[in-house]
Amino acid sequence: MGVGFAYLLAFAAGVSFVFQQAVNSSLRVEIDSPWWAGFVSYLGGSVVMLAVALAAHGSLPTTGMLGRSHAMSWTGGIFGAIYIGISILLVPRL
After folding, report:
1. What are the tens digits of pLDDT across the range 22-46?
2. pLDDT digits over 69-79, tens only?
3. Which residue of 65, 73, 81, 89 could cross-link 61, Cys pair, CB 3.0 to 4.6 Å?
4. Which backbone phi and psi does 58 adopt, to 5 degrees?
5. 73: closest CA among 65, 62, 85?
6. Which domain holds residue 77?
7. Number of structural domains the chain divides into
8. Using a CB cutoff of 8 Å and minimum separation of 24, what contacts does 90-94 make?
9. Is residue 75 one of the residues assigned to a domain?
10. pTM listed for this prediction
11. How far apart are the C-alpha atoms of 7 and 12, rounded to whole Å?
12. What is the distance between the terminal CA atoms of the chain, rounded to a whole angstrom?
């Protein structure tokens, strides 16, 4: 990956972050629940990530691969959910 492409990806990540906060906050108001808004956000992201992972790698990880991973590796989604939940709660108040 070239440096220019890396900068482009970093820019896209920053733009996506801003749009995600706005969309999640809007959904929170529309469905009157920060928790369901967070769930919908994660569900949509999971579907997209699965499609990208299958397209890029072509297969699911084996149980052996999953078993070799450190337990702490599985906590990323928990921290992400905490972050998204807090963001959905706070953005309308900022």
Report:
1. 899 999 999 999 899 999 999 999 9
2. 888 888 888 89
3. 65
4. 90, -15
5. 65
6. 3-60+71-93
7. 1
8. 91/21, 91/22, 91/24, 91/25, 92/25, 92/28, 92/29
9. yes
10. 0.72
11. 9
12. 37
- Which run of H or E residues covers position 68? helix 63-68
85 and 25 Cβ atoms separated by less than 8 Å:
no
What number of residues does the chain have?
Answer: 94
Residue 43 lies in a domain: yes
Q: Are 41 and 20 in contact (CB under 8 A)?
A: yes
CA–CA distance, 7 with 5 (Å, rounded to integer): 5
Q: Which of these, 53, 60, 26, lies nearest to 40 by C-alpha position?
A: 26
pLDDT at 71: 85
Is a pLDDT exceeding 90 seen at residue 8? yes
